[in-house]
Amino acid sequence: MGVSLNLQPRTVQVARELEQAMNTPGEDLGGAALAIARIEYPALEPERYVDRLDQMGEEARTRLKGSPVRTSEDAISAFNEYLYDEQGFSGNVRKYDDTRNSFLNEVLDRRTGIPISLAVVYLEVARRAGIRVSGVNFPGHFLLRAAAEPAAEADQGSPGEPFRIIDPFHGGARLSERDCRELLRQHVGDNAAFDERLLQPATRHDIIVRMLVNLKRLYVRMRSYPQARFVSDLLLTIDPSAFTELRDRGLLAYHLEDFSAALRDLEAYLRLIPKYASMTEDPYERDDDEEVRTDDAQIWEYVKSLRKRVAGFN
Questions:
Q1: Pairwise CA distance, residues 51 & 45, whole Å
Q2: DSSP state letters, the chain
Q3: Residues 6 or more apart in contact with residue 137 via CB below 8 angstroms
Q4: Which of these, 37, 68, 240, 259, could form a disulfide with 2 (CB 3.0-4.6 Å)?
C-alpha cells in the first residue's frame, strides 16, 4: 500500500532527480548519490563529478592493462593501489559524523568518507574500469563483494572461494568470515548471529536507501530537523510504501511546529496499521502486545494532541 507523499515545495526538484536516477537502466549509483547531495548543495553541477568518475575509471583501466594482472585477486589489488595509494582515498576516522562524508561530491573533493560513500566511489570507478564488484548491506558497516576465480583458475589448483569481501573504509582490505563475524559483534552486539546471507549483494535501491537513512539519523542527532525532514521526503519518494518513514516525517514536522503536516502524516501512518485503522478507540484499552502498545499508542497520543491544536487554528 502506498502513501501520499505531500512533499515540501523545495524538495520537489531533488525528488524528481532522485527518482529519475533510480529508474535509469543499469547499475549507476552516481546520479542518485549526486541528487542526494543537493540537500546541502542546491547549486551542485553533477556533470563535473560524473566526469571525474569517468576519468578515474579510465585511469584505473589503464593501470590494470599495464599491470601483471592474472587473476581477479590481482585486479582487485591493482585497483586498490590506484584508488587508495595513488588517489589517496581513506576512511574519515577522526570526523566520522561529519555530514560531508555522506555526500559524493565532498567525498570526491576531499578523498575521504564513511564506508557507504567510499563504497559508492569504489563501485562507480571499478565498474568503469571493468571490475565486477557489488555492495554488501552489512549491519553497521557497509562492505563490498567481488567474485573469486573458479576452481580451475585459482592459483596452484586450490579450490578458491565463491567471493571475497572488501572493506572500502580501510583501504580495500580483504575480510575473512572471521573478520565479518567480529565486525558484526562490534556493531550489533555479542549475541548477534552471523549468517552468510548478510553478505549477499545489495541492489541499487538498498544502497541509496541506506545512504539516506544514515544521513537522516545523523541530522536527527544534530537536531537538524529541516534537513532530516528533507531526507524523509526523499525516502518516501523512492519507496512510497515505507509507512514507518511516514511516521518519522510526521514526528519531524512536529519538532518543526508544522502541526498540520505532522497531523496529516501521523494520521496516515496509523491508518496503515490494521489495529489502529479506525482511530476511534484508545489503544491502551486493547489487548495488544506491549511493544505495539508502547510505540503506536504514543503516536496516537500525539495525534489526539495535534487534533486539538490544529482545531484551535481554524
A1: 11
A2: --------GGGHHHHHHHHHHHTSSSS--HHHHHHHHTTT-TT--HHHHHHHHHHHHHHHHHHHHTS---SHHHHHHHHHIIIIIIS--EE--TTTT-GGGG-HHHHHHHSEE-HHHHHHHHHHHHHHHT--EEEE--TTS-EEEEEPPPGGGSGGG----SEEEEETTTTTEEE-HHHHHHHHHHHH-TTPPP-GGGGSBPPHHHHHHHHHHHHHHHHHHTT-HHHHHHHHHHHHHH-TT-HHHHHHHHHHHHHTT-HHHHHHHHHHHHHTSGGGSS--S-GGGS---HHHHHHHHHHHHHHHHHHHHHHHH-
A3: 202, 206, 207, 210
A4: 240
The Cα angle at residue 128 between residues 123 and 131, in degrees rounded to 5: 65
Exposure on the CB side of residue 275, measured as CA atoms within 13 A = 15
Mean pLDDT by 10 residues, the chain (314 residues): 56 92 94 96 95 98 85 92 97 96 98 98 97 96 87 44 92 95 92 91 97 96 95 93 92 94 93 64 39 66 89 68
Predicted confidence at residue 309, as pLDDT, reads 87
CB 99 within 8 A of CB 215: yes
Strand pairing partners for 166? Answer: 144, 174
The CA radius of gyration of the chain, in Å to the nearest whole number, is 22
Residues in a beta bridge with 174: 166
pLDDT for 211 equals 97
pLDDT digits (tens, 9 = 90+) for 167-200: 999 999 999 999 999 999 999 998 888 999 999 9
Domain residue spans of the chain: 9-199, 242-313
d(CA 207, CA 36): 12
CA distance 226 to 138: 29
